[in-house]
């Protein structure tokens, strides 16, 4: 015969809340002109600037023996601070549309038509 399991709510719903998650992300960027038509944008993204180690997941299980008694133990915390570096290259060069192409297509349509 199997054991009978009974679930009993020991704590009223919506009576316990976790800590707020404090998260601040920051981006610093700078654009540089190269010649007359080209532009390079360098950027640094900083995630979790405050380096808060806030608990994001708690165990909600409670067992009768010591091995399963893990109620309210942290299971996951917020990711630590990290940096991401990047660059973007842009050209101000725009080609005129080919003959017969609508002018609203701009450089994208002209490039697409040329590649066919």
Describe this protein's structure.
The protein has 116 residues and is mainly beta. The chain has one domain. 9% of the residues lie in helices and 32% in strands. The protein has one helix and five strands; from the N terminus they run βββββα. It has one helix spanning 106-115; strands spanning 26-34, 38-47, 55-58, 74-77, 82-91. The strands form two sheets. A three-stranded antiparallel beta sheet has the order 1-2-5, with no helix packed on it. A two-stranded antiparallel sheet has the order 3-4. A hairpin with a 3-residue loop joins strand 1 and strand 2. The chain is elongated and about 85 Å long. The protein starts with 25 loop residues before the first strand and ends with a helix.
Number of domains: 1
Radius of gyration: 28 Å
Helix content: under 10%
**Structural class of the helices, strands and pairings?**
mainly beta
Instruction: State the distance separating the first and last CA atoms.
Output: 74 Å
Counting DSSP E segments of at least 2 residues, the number of strands comes to 5
**How would the global form be characterised?**
elongated
User: Numbering strands along the chain, what is their spatial order in the largest sheet?
Assistant: 1-2-5
């Amino acid at each position: 015969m199997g054991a009978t399991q009974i679930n009993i709510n020991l704590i009223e719903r919506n009576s316990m809340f976790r800590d707020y998650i404090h998260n601040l992300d920051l981006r610093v960027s700078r654009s540089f002109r190269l010649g007359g038509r080209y532009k390079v944008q360098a950027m640094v993204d900083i995630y979790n600037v405050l380096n808060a180690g806030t608990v994001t997941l708690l165990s909600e299980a409670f067992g009768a023996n010591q091995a399963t008694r893990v109620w309210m133990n942290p299971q996951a915390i917020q990711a630590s601070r990290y940096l991401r570096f990047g660059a973007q290259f842009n050209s101000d060069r725009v080609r005129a549309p080919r003959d017969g192409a609508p002018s609203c297509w701009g450089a994208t349509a002209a490039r697409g038509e040329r590649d066919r």
